[in-house]
Amino acid sequence: MKDAGKSGGPLRAQPAVKRSRIQTRNRKRILDAALEVFSAHGFRGATLDQIAAEAGLSKPNILYYFDGKEAIHVTLLNQLMETWLDPLEQMNPEGEPLEEIIAYVQRKLDMAQAYPRESRLFANEILQGAPRMGPHLEKRLKPLVDQKATLIAGWAAAGRIAPVDPRHLIFSIWATTQHYADFEAQVNVLMPEGGVFPGAATYLETMFRRMLKV
Amino acid sequence: MKDAGKSGGPLRAQPAVKRSRIQTRNRKRILDAALEVFSAHGFRGATLDQIAAEAGLSKPNILYYFDGKEAIHVTLLNQLMETWLDPLEQMNPEGEPLEEIIAYVQRKLDMAQAYPRESRLFANEILQGAPRMGPHLEKRLKPLVDQKATLIAGWAAAGRIAPVDPRHLIFSIWATTQHYADFEAQVNVLMPEGGVFPGAATYLETMFRRMLKV
DNA sequence: TCGCTTTTTTACCAATTGGTAAATTGACGA
DNA sequence: TCGTCAATTTACCAATTGGTAAAAAAGCGA
What we know:
The structure is a homodimer. Chain A has a domain at 76-212: Tetracycline Repressor, domain 2, CATH 1.10.357. Chain A is built from 10 helices and no strands. Chain A has helices at residues 21-45, 48-55, 59-65, 69-89, 97-114, 116-127, 134-157, 166-182, 184-190, 197-212. In chain A, helix 1 (21-45) packs antiparallel against helix 2 (48-55), helix 5 packs parallel to helix 8 (166-182) and helix 5 runs antiparallel to helix 10 (197-212). The termini of chain A are far apart. In chain A, 36% of the residues are buried. Chains A and B meet through helix 1, helix 6, helix 7, helix 8 and helix 9 of A and helix 1, helix 6, helix 7, helix 8 and helix 9 of B. Chain A binds a DNA duplex through helix 1 and helix 3.
């Protein structure tokens, strides 16, 4: 039923079609505008008019490049998933366990700082029950988490880090790092103005070191 | 424990307006339905029709009890803030520092388990930049956090817990506990079916103990 | 029961929003 | 320079949505 040339399943990101210079530029503009708007208002809260205004294009012109509001959102989510998985993928089984985990925490925190919109887009999607991302979580996220959980469990069993439930450890890393992006509005109220990220980096390194050192 | 923990705070505009039995019942129905719908879809994503259907009332009837969609949302947020602050307020300056903090973590986790809709309602609001809650955060949350941060800093300075930035500690407690409610859709994909909360409780107690013990 | 108030329903709106059709303009290779 | 296809605009819709007016129904004290 699905046309391989165009949709080929929920996992789709790279162009199977060659795009003109104008197409490349305008698709990028649209996706960037959509990221801005979707991350700030959620899927339902965002309007095509907002995205069009942000992109500097007309609404029908937006729909010339994408099949609809949902198609833009899905495209964004697909691209995001790869970026999102990357820091965890980089965790090296051959490395020094504690340092590998600490480095992962730092990469995640760096991402929250560098890409807060992406973090919020993701948070919005999961908060609403992952209606457009469920398959993605099963097919891409779960296998990776299973693999890394096994790795961490191995490190703990070998006494190279303190005993710990690897999945809850991963959750706590996600939660604490993404918090600074997702709950920025609250953090900004509670922390004296000025970058909270240096302090966060120090705090989180300390926390996970104390927790995991043998 | 009838009034003990609740009647003390005359924050809600409950006085002066005496409500009939029907009003009391229907307002409660509406607020409960609205909590369900707002927490699942966000403010913009929720419709009065959905709330009306969930409440078993007609849309105009909903508007007979509340001035509008926003008024329902604000009422919910106001009620929520008190519930939300309560676990932190209970942290006792006279208690044993480490046990007080661990107990706070458990209370927060209990709330995430017992009131996931409230957690998501709050998360939605903050994610969108706290458009209807900004003043509340400044007026109610900030003073309480400042006070408890001072308390925790005192404990650390006295060597009764390990040195730690109290605000980042609080953030990490919020982030890790609320994660199980807010990111439930993701957690359910990654954890073998069956309650994750017992495991979470054990994990979080271990983590914060290791982090804070002197 | 009567008469008044509270509650609920019916019948609408105006604005917004995602989306489309068709005409118009622009890019660019031959 | 021209012809053609890509890109954009103009002018619309139909559905949804928050909200209202007014009539009908239900409560309820006397």
